[in-house]
Amino acid sequence: MDVMGVWNTAAVTVPRMLAGPDPAGCRFVAVASAAGTRGLFHLSGYGMAKHAVVGLVRCLAADLVGTGATAVAVSPGSTRTSMLSATAALYGLDDVESFAPSQLTERLIDPAEVAELIAFCCSRAGGVATGTVVSAEGGFRG
Questions:
Q1: Considering only Cβ atoms within 10 Å of each terminal Cβ, which end of the chain, N or C, has fewer?
Q2: SS3 for 123?
Q3: Which candidate, 55, 74, 64, 75, places its Cα nearest to that of 18?
Q4: What pLDDT, in 10s, does the model give residues 10-30?
Q5: How big is the CA angle at 93 (ends 43 and 51), to the nearest 5 degrees?
Q6: What was the pLDDT predicted at 85?
Q7: Rounded to whole angstroms, how far apart are CA atoms 117 and 69?
Q8: CB atoms < 10 A from the CB of 97, how many?
Q9: Dihedral of alpha carbons 95, 96, 99, 103, sign
Q10: Helix residue ranges, H only, 40-109
């Protein structure tokens, strides 16, 4: 569902963005993952879906050339969410804090930090990031 959700969202929103009064100010931002640019243990299906999200965003950005609208993927690392708790359980870990050393920041990312980066990507200044994966990985080292 990861990539299909992004696909369906783009299919509905991008035509509306382009039909609006200021397409050059429009930004499509998808959430990928550190798993979208590398392989992670026991997460093949998830990684495949997130790689697809990255590919979709890169192709969408190419399709938007000349419109001023942009597309970008934001790629969080180990973020303090219920999904990280589920991943810890998958790995047999008692605590999500076990993921902190996998990032150069040596701490988990707060969801608000990812939201702030997404907000920047939605700004006019964030338009220069089109077609890219913007890392919110905290220096993820897998």
A1: N
A2: coil
A3: 64
A4: 999 999 999 999 999 999 999
A5: 15
A6: 95
A7: 18
A8: 13
A9: negative
A10: 44-63, 82-90
